[in-house]
Amino acid sequence: MFNKGQMAGLLKQAQAMQENLKKAQEELANIEVEGESGAGLVKVVMTAKHEVRRVTIDPSLLAEDKDMLEDLVAAAFNAGLRKASEVEQEKMGKLTGGMGGLGGLGGLKLPF
To answer: What GO MF annotations does this protein's record show (predicted)?
Structure first.
């Protein structure tokens, strides 16, 4: 099916893609996104790798209902997670060329 030269070329491409994916993962750890709720009264800053860096709560909320504040914090976290996932999908999609993830390389069957 494949000769040695073709196999070597495929392996080289796979190694290059693996290096590019590793580099992209490292870059995602440095990209920050912000989720907010309550018209900006609660903000969460996190990396595109879902590591929370900062939570900001407007002082006016501290005198409010505890349940409402907890809901706003949860909503801000969820908004941040959605943004982080979008950034991650966009960055990784560029590398994989829309192959639907790396599990199976978009349906490509390799002989090993």
So the answer is: DNA binding
Q: Domain 34-95: what homologous superfamily? A: Nucleoid-associated protein YbaB-like domain (3.30.1310.10)
Alpha-carbon dihedral of residues 57, 35, 50, 61, nearest 10 degrees?
20
User: Does residue 39 register a pLDDT over 90?
Assistant: yes
Angle CA(58)–CA(30)–CA(25) in degrees, nearest 5? 135
Residue 105 — left, alpha, or beta (φ > 0 → left; ψ -120 to 50 → alpha)? left
Angle, CA 36 vertex, CA 34 and CA 45 arms, to 5°:
30
Mean pLDDT of the chain: 83
Quick check: pTM over 0.70? Answer: no
Work out the percent of the chain whose per-residue pLDDT is above 70.
84
- Tell me the domain boundaries of the chain: 34-95
